[in-house]
């Protein structure tokens, strides 16, 4: 069975505070703790030098055990709270991408 990568990218609103960024980071962590099969992979500022990435300032990546977990993740009340937090002065633009990944070795195992 394939797993799923859930990517959320943001163009931050003018004047977003460090406190607001911390609340969003904490919201993603709380959501992944609350949903069985969800794991926060990374969240933080975009450090890409690519011209294609220049407008995307912040992102979160969540690995989901399988595509079916996405429905529970999206429907969870903590997700609703995180949505309210981000819509309230966190971003000007938001992009969400979900991609299935093939089964294979554990990505956390060093090669």
Walk me through what this model shows.
There is one protein chain. The protein is of the alpha+beta class and 111 residues long. The protein has a single domain (3-101), classed as Alpha-Beta Plaits (2-Layer Sandwich). The protein has 3 helices and 4 strands. A 4-stranded antiparallel sheet has the order 2-3-1-4, covered by helices on one side. Helix 1 runs antiparallel to helix 3. The model has no long low-confidence stretch (mean pLDDT 91).
Rg, Cα atoms, Å:
14 Å
Please identify the oligomeric state: single chain
Helix count equals 3
Structural class: alpha+beta
CATH topology: Alpha-Beta Plaits
What is the end-to-end distance?
22 Å
Envelope shape: globular
Give the number of DSSP strands: 4
Order of helices and strands: EHEEHHE
**Total number of distinct structural domains:** 1
Put the structure in a nutshell:
This protein has helices spanning 18-34, 69-75, 77-87, and strands spanning 3-12, 38-45, 58-64, 91-101. By secondary structure, the protein is of the alpha+beta class. It has a single domain (3-101), classed as Alpha-Beta Plaits, CATH 3.30.70.
Map the helices and strands.
Blueprint (H helix, E strand, L loop, with lengths): L2 E10 L5 H17 L3 E8 L12 E7 L4 H7 L1 H11 L3 E11 L10
Antiparallel strand pairs: 1-3, 1-4, 2-3
Helix pairs in contact: 1-3
What attributes characterize this protein structure?
111 residues, alpha+beta, Alpha-Beta Plaits, 3 helices, 32% helix
